[in-house]
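Archive entry: two folds, one per protein. Generate the first.
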Amino acid sequence: MKKDSSRRTFLKFSLAGVIGITLGGKTLIRPAQAADLPHLAEDDPQAKALQYVENSPHEDQKCDGCALLQGEEGADWRPCQLFPGKVVSANGWCSAWVKRP
């Protein structure tokens, strides 16, 4: 009998939590947007390891043309698969650059 009570209480609080978070269809938790993320600094340890620079020394190799770059086409700063939680310069470059197909 005690087991049913615990399950019922759990379901009640779970439902209340879902309702509280969504508040009538407006979600309080939203995915991070590129504008919300910090810019990757050249002195970041991972950036240093991959020789990341904000301005590519290679005219034909820029982050904007890399297969690892994500986000909205044409934006100056975009997320990269190699640097989660940060955005990189579309004009940047790193040693992991791979030509977009």
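Generate the second and append.
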Amino acid sequence: MKHLVTYLIGLIFGLGISIGGMANPAKVVNFFDVAGTWDPSLIFVMGGALVTTFIGYRFVFGRWTAPAFGETFSLPTNRKLDKRLIGGAAVFGVGWGIAGFCPGGALPALGTGSFDVIIFCIALIAGILAAKFLSTKSAKSAA
């Protein structure tokens, strides 16, 4: 049952990204092109996601003490803005602006079989592995 629910949530997310046009890198790049062919639709997609998330969190945490398929909610405890968080956010934003894909838009777009999407996802995985390697190396040298 847990896998079915996970699949359905992913399917709804992927459909939302696709219907909203966010699987199209040109639409995302045009959002960042404020001096040219600016397309504000990304603001509405993100705004809708934020409103839905806000309401969902209030609903879930107001009624339940644990998730339906787990023992406890897994929530972040670190609330500090540090160099790693800010640097990672900056790299993410630059990559998003250059490629026109964020992971949320690229994964549903993998179904198109587009070479650009496949290359982006390979680069995404390589970046995750490189960051993990550097983080492990940094932790070892600090100890």
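Annotation attached to the second fold: DSSP finds six helices and no strands in the chain. The chain has one domain: 2-142.
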